[in-house]
Amino acid sequence: MSGIFDDFKREFTKTDNTLVRIILINVVVFLSLLLTKVIFTLGQSSEAYVWLVDMLRLPAAPREFLYKPWTIITYFFTHEEIFHILFNMLFLYWFGRLVDEYLGSKRLIALYILGGIAGGVAYVAIYNLLPYFQSQVAGSQMLGASAAAFSVAVGASTLLPNYTFNLIFIGPIRIKYIAFFYIILSLAQSIGPNAGGNLAHLGGALTGFLFIKFLQNGTDMGKPLYVLMAIWNNLFRRRPPMRVTHRQKEVQRTASAYSSAASPASVEMPDQDEIDSILDKISKSGYESLTKEEKQKLFKASQQK
């Protein structure tokens, strides 16, 4: 058992492993709730489990939400059904790795969180503003990472619409068609038993689309989140003991320069020859053959007007 925990810890602490961290948080919450449900059921305290999950679900009623404002975040890290989390995490992984490669881990986190929040806001608004749903507000609650995953999927599809996935029994298909199919499916299911949840997907999808379009025009919607993430990281970062020597300063300076050179923000705007070379490489070998730096240069070039 300790080996399993060590594996989880090792994966979570790896650098440049943001997508896996998001998935691990969802899995840990799911397994914790599953174990808690078994314990409470055997102890004939099922009502305690229901109360616990209610503290994580997003309620549709505004008055109830005011007592549980944290649920606008917790709901998109919480699942109860195995197929619900399995589908969401696979969906997130397929599209999330593209966002991570082309835009970096910070923007992946921003897409996930902003999409989840937008989906939650859409859910509450729909249930309280549309007459069709107003009679269902009382007792309606939502959980699951679908809206956040949709944000990442549509973001990736907006950024790389012609990127292809090889689907079983279907073959290669462009990701823009996959995203479009699931958007239409969510609309079609908007009058079913999970109507609010399916419409919340559209809030996440719209966020993913707008995030990339704004980014391509030079505006990063994730900047407020980056500030919060920096503050969070500084709170929990271990600070090494201070030792002032001339040699160590040189080492630190060198390491800092290397880190800066390796960061996505430091990638220079490519000239036309570089762009043509990258495009030729794509036509011959596909997007997968590009290095991370080439992908970042291609994205920089797309921002040039």
Description:
It is a single chain. The chain is mainly alpha-helical and 305 residues long. It has two domains: 2-227, Rhomboid-like (Rhomboid-like fold, Up-down Bundle); 238-303, no CATH class. The protein is 70% helix and 4% strand. It has 15 helices and four strands. It has helices spanning 2-13, 18-42, 46-54, 62-67, 71-74, 82-103, 105-129, 131-134, 146-159, 175-188, 195-216, 223-236, 246-262, 272-285, 292-303; strands at 58-59, 141-142, 164-167, 171-174. The chain has a two-stranded antiparallel sheet with strand order 1-2. The protein has a two-stranded antiparallel ribbon with strand order 3-4. The protein is globular, with a radius of gyration of 22 Å. Residues 69-213 form the Peptidase S54 rhomboid domain. Residues 271-303 form the DUF6576 domain. InterPro entries: DUF6576, Peptidase_S54_rhomboid_dom, Rhomboid-like_sf, Rhomboid_protease_S54. It is a multi-pass membrane protein.
